[in-house]
Amino acid sequence: MIARIWSGESLLWLLLLPLSWLYGLVSGVIRLCYRLGLKRAWRAPVPVVVVGNLTAGGNGKTPVVIWLVEKLTQRGVRVGVVSRGYGGKAARYPLLLNAQTSTAEAGDEPVLIFQRTGVPVAVSPKRSEAVQALLAEHAVQLVITDDGLQHYALARDKEIVVIDGVRRFGNGWWLPAGPMRERESRLRSVDAVIVNGGEAKTGEIPMQLAPGLAVNLLTGERRDVTQLSSLVAMAGIGHPPRFFATLQNQGATLEKCVPLADHQALTSEKVASLLAPGQTLIMTEKDAVKCRAFAKADWWYLPVDAELSGEKPEQLLKELIALVK
C-alpha cells in the first residue's frame, strides 16, 4: 500500500498532505538553523564523507559505502565508517564493532560493512560520538558515514546521494504522503549523485548491483543460483522486489518470495517456518548477517557489489583522496 501511495497510484496520499507539510516545515527549519549558525555542527579533525539519500527505503546506499571503502583502501587511505545503527540496541554508545558484535547490538548494515571490508566501524545515535570513538582507537584518515545526509549535527566535507533509478522520487512529496526526506532541489547542493539501476540523467553516475555466486551460510560453499533448486527467496531490505528480480535475472526459479520489513529482527523459528520440506532458502547478505548464528545447511545468500561506470567515479575518488592529502 505504501508503495502505491508514494508512487502516486493511490490518491490516499492527498489525505496525508497536512502531515507532509509539517514534516517539510520541521526539517527545513532544522537545516536553516544550522546554515544560519543558530545550531552548531561538530567538525571532525579528519574529512567526513556522507553517503545518504533523499528518500525513505532502500536505494543501494550500503553497497556504495562498501565500494568507496574498498577503492580508497586499495589506494592506501585508512578509512573508518560510522552509522546510526538502525535495528540495533547496544547497552552503551558509542559502540565499536568487533568480530563478536551482533546485529541485535549494532544493526545489520554496520555488521555487514564490518564483515565485508574489515575497516573500523562505530555506531551511535549521535554520529559525532561514533567518529570520536573511531579516532580514539584507530589512525583513521577519512570517515564515511552510512546514511546521515539529514543529520546536520555532524559537519561534512563531501555529500554523496544514492538514488533508486527505477523509482526515483515517486510522487515527490515529503513523508508520509511521499517518500521524500528532502525535496529534489537538494541535489543541487551535493557533490555527487549515484543512480542505482534505471537510467542516469546528465551529471549523474550510473551504477548497477552485480550479483556474485550464492554463498552457503554454514560452509561458505559458492554456487551459481541456477544450481539451487526449490528456492524460497527472503529479503528484509528497503525494496525487496529488487532482490527477487535480481535472482530471476540470474536464471533462478523461485517457488516463493517473502518480503520482510527493512532491518526486521529474525529468529531461527521465524526463518525456518518459511520453508517446506525439501525447499532451499536464499536471502540477501544483509539478512545473512542476522542468521549466521542459527543457520541451516540449506540456507544461502547472494552477495552483490556496486559497479559504477563512466569517468566520474574515478574523479570522485581523486577528490576524496585530495581531502586526506
Commentary on this structure:
The radius of gyration is 20 Å and the shape is globular. The protein has helices spanning 2-7, 17-35, 61-74, 103-106, 108-117, 127-137, 240-249, 268-272, 285-291, 312-324; strands at residues 48-52, 79-83, 95-96, 121-123, 142-146, 158-164, 192-196, 205-211, 214-216, 222-223, 231-235, 254-259, 280-284, 299-302, 304-308. The longest helix is centred in the first third of the chain and has 19 residues, at 17-35. Helix 3 (61-74) runs parallel beside helix 5 (108-117) and helix 5 packs across helix 9 (285-291). It folds into two domains: 41-172 and 186-208 and 307-324, Rossmann fold (3-Layer(aba) Sandwich); 213-302. Helix 9 (285-291) links the parallel strand 13 and strand 14 (299-302). Strands 3-4-2-5-1-6-7-8-15 form a nine-stranded mixed β-sheet, sandwiched between helices. Strands 10-9-14-13-11-12 form a six-stranded mixed β-sheet. Helix content is 30%, strand content 21%. The chain has 325 residues and is an alpha/beta fold. The mean pLDDT is 94.
Write the layout of secondary structure elements.
Elements: H1 2-7, H2 17-35, E1 48-52, H3 61-74, E2 79-83, E3 95-96, H4 103-106, H5 108-117, E4 121-123, H6 127-137, E5 142-146, E6 158-164, E7 192-196, E8 205-211, E9 214-216, E10 222-223, E11 231-235, H7 240-249, E12 254-259, H8 268-272, E13 280-284, H9 285-291, E14 299-302, E15 304-308, H10 312-324
Parallel strand pairs: 1-5, 1-6, 2-4, 2-5, 6-7, 7-8, 11-12, 11-13, 13-14
Antiparallel strand pairs: 3-4, 8-15, 9-10, 9-14
Helix pairs in contact: 3-5, 5-9
